[in-house]
């Protein structure tokens, strides 16, 4: 073989047999098919839906954005499918990990701390109800695409846990920001 540019015959994997190395064979076969055929029609349609959605708005920062995005999901099935795909791409090996990754991608801690499953008042503040929400449906459907054996009870439990723990996670951030302002005040007094 010459030291020049390799010709197309170097990339011809048609003579490769599965018995040589199964993993290598299937990897090369899949790679060769995707290179030759390009992206699937389904993949292109989902990517188009993702582009049409306002993805600059994610993660949702507060309840107002949550409600507006929920209205968008109710009125636009392509946006719903795009969120399902987004959640599916977040991945996760367990239901807990997949749900956590999904909610972290879609909402901020501040948004989650202003919501709860039943919309019950906590410490005198009315929370936004997420039970039956179209966003919750999209997250659960996306997790099920990643983990098809996920049960409703598991998805609900992990979603509740993610929203219940959000206010706890905000407290350290608020405490550290107030400490840094006090440190700055001490420096100014000298």
UniProtKB/TrEMBL annotation:
It comes from the Eukaryota. InterPro entries: DUF4806 (IPR032071). Pfam families: DUF4806 (PF16064). Residues 147-190 are annotated as: Disordered. Residues 147-171 have a biased composition (Basic and acidic residues). Residues 59-135 form the DUF4806 domain. This is DUF4806 domain-containing protein. Coiled coil: none annotated. It comes from Daphnia sinensis.
């Amino acid at each position: 073989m010459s030291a020049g540019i390799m010709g197309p015959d170097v990339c011809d994997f048609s003579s490769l047999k599965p018995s040589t190395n199964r993993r290598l064979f299937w990897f090369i076969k899949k790679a060769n098919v995707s290179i030759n055929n390009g992206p699937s029609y389904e993949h292109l349609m989902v990517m188009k839906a993702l582009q049409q959605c306002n993805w600059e708005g994610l993660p949702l920062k507060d309840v107002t954005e949550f409600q507006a995005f929920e209205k968008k999901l109710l009125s636009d099935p392509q946006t719903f499918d795009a969120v399902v795909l987004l959640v599916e791409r977040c991945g996760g090996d367990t239901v807990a990990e997949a749900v956590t990754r999904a909610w972290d991608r879609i909402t901020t801690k501040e948004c989650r701390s202003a919501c709860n499953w039943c919309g019950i008042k906590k410490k005198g503040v009315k929370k936004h109800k997420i039970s039956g929400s179209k966003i919750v449906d999209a997250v659960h459907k996306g997790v099920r695409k990643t983990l098809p054996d996920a049960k409703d009870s598991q998805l609900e439990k992990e979603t509740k846990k993610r929203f219940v723990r959000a206010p706890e996670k905000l407290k350290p951030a608020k405490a550290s920001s107030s400490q840094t302002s006090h440190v700055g005040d001490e420096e100014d007094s000298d």
